Amino acid sequence: MLKYGKVFGLVVFVFLFAMCNQKSKNESKETILKGSIDIVTDETIKPIVDDQVAVFEGTYYDAKITVKPKSEGELINDLLSQKAKVVVTARNLTKEELQKFEKSKINPRVTPFAVDAIALISNKSNNDTLIALKSVIDFMQGKSDTRIKGLVFDNPNSSTVRYMKDLAKVKEIPSNGVFSFKTNDEVIKFVSENDGMIGVVGVNWLSQPSPNMVDIVKKINVLSVKGLKDNNYYNPTQNDLAELKYPLARDLFIINCQGYSGLGMGFASFIAGDIGQRIVLKSGLLPVRTPGRKLQIRSQIINDKE
């Protein structure tokens, strides 16, 4: 019996050693520029993340990033439960969330990389392309508004719903006149087919529509929004975002909880670096830092006709 116990203990030891060794080998295969990783992204900002990943993988051939879009509620739950190690969000971590990570001895690396805009859209048949933010807030608070027949969101747990609830200071969205789907594309399609509806979407879905959405996007208006501080109307453009005028702006972050120098760190450095910021600029969002421009100074004028 004693002999059997010794043999069993030896087998367990060898098995655990092999497992640890295998884990070590797997981690050693991943660096900041190679390996594979899953990144969970807020569904409302998926287009800009897809663009960044495409260029990153095209630059570093040994890197493979799988983008998994989820609602903000699902994304944060996955991060807190450590099911997701790297996420792209439309908000920073809260004090309570940071405390949970501290208890688990995890130090999240948070990197801001862009300023996004929540766009309000209407059917093309609606000639009025102006809307007051107060009207939307009143509707969210259950007050009557003759102009707004309904608000259309992508998902009850999305970042846009959370943003608008915080803005209106309500815990729940109204039960009447509010519609929700699963994706931003579904919101855009619904608004394009229904008069009087106001859609709430991430502006990136409008500036960079997928091929099957190009014609549908042409059937909607992006509304100019009057904020709560003045009587002017502003658009979800880079200029109005840069001048802090558009009232529905939000910062975007990549949060890395890998705990080691892996592909998450490499991608975060890329997206916040010069190339990544140029991709943000091209997408219609506002980069957190303006990419530099290289100017070639000639010592003499060259006559191309000669």
Automatic annotation (TrEMBL):
<protein>
    <submittedName>
        <fullName>Phosphate ABC transporter substrate-binding protein</fullName>
    </submittedName>
</protein>
<dbReference type="Pfam" id="PF12849">
    <property type="entry name" value="PBP_like_2"/>
</dbReference>
<dbReference type="InterPro" id="IPR024370">
    <property type="entry name" value="PBP_domain"/>
</dbReference>
<keyword id="KW-0732">Signal</keyword>
<dbReference type="InterPro" id="IPR050811">
    <property type="entry name" value="Phosphate_ABC_transporter"/>
</dbReference>
<feature type="domain" description="PBP">
    <location>
        <begin position="34"/>
        <end position="273"/>
    </location>
</feature>
